[in-house]
């Protein structure tokens, strides 16, 4: 089965502009054109576009993706080189995950900190070290602001 660029955009979530841009940038030399010059995508093309999207979403630059596509078009002679590209990208994603976990830990702490400050009515009552996200948050009850009930 073949798909139009609009159908591919709908299936992939990419815009037709992005798909045309990727084609111009040499990321989709595998896409054939019909007699009218329109792109005709296959299921295999959709799988490859999904891979391109994966690589892009994990931080790989378009030039690197183009290089990978060129290697893939050369066939089995480039298998080892392509494997090494994926190993490097895999390591890059592992590093991104590690950094994201560190950021999440800091954000978790800040949510706890500001929740405590809101409950206390002031930041002055709250103590704890933001650089140590695992540390407890301490509320000094003497500095707590009494909330006045609205009538």
From TrEMBL:
<keyword id="KW-0805">Transcription regulation</keyword>
<dbReference type="InterPro" id="IPR000551">
    <property type="entry name" value="MerR-type_HTH_dom"/>
</dbReference>
<dbReference type="GO" id="GO:0003677">
    <property type="term" value="F:DNA binding"/>
</dbReference>
<keyword id="KW-0238">DNA-binding</keyword>
<dbReference type="InterPro" id="IPR009061">
    <property type="entry name" value="DNA-bd_dom_put_sf"/>
</dbReference>
<dbReference type="InterPro" id="IPR047057">
    <property type="entry name" value="MerR_fam"/>
</dbReference>
<keyword id="KW-0804">Transcription</keyword>
<feature type="domain" description="HTH merR-type">
    <location>
        <begin position="2"/>
        <end position="71"/>
    </location>
</feature>
<protein>
    <submittedName>
        <fullName>MerR family transcriptional regulator</fullName>
    </submittedName>
</protein>
<dbReference type="Pfam" id="PF13411">
    <property type="entry name" value="MerR_1"/>
</dbReference>
<dbReference type="GO" id="GO:0003700">
    <property type="term" value="F:DNA-binding transcription factor activity"/>
</dbReference>
<keyword id="KW-0678">Repressor</keyword>
